[in-house]
């Protein structure tokens, strides 16, 4: 699942691919807001994104359950 995180006063949103579900991400954000701490999310490659919880403007969830197809250049000789 892809999670896009909108951050207050930032021109671009953060995009994270994660194996979690929307409910667990929302629970983590709500707990971070309650604790007045940092909201962190780990992607499917083990990288972590951290944002002050009170600066999160929105979360946008996209289900990427379909196959990913990549395109590349192949040089022929």
TrEMBL record:
This is DUF3107 domain-containing protein.
């Amino acid at each position: 699942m892809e999670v896009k995180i909108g951050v207050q006063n930032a021109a671009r949103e953060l995009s994270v691919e994660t194996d979690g579900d929307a409910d667990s991400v929302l629970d983590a954000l709500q707990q971070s807001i309650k604790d007045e701490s940092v909201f962190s999310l780990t992607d499917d490659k083990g990288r972590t994104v951290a944002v002050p919880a009170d600066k999160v403007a929105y979360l946008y969830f996209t289900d990427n359950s379909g196959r990913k197809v990549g395109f590349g250049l192949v040089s022929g000789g």
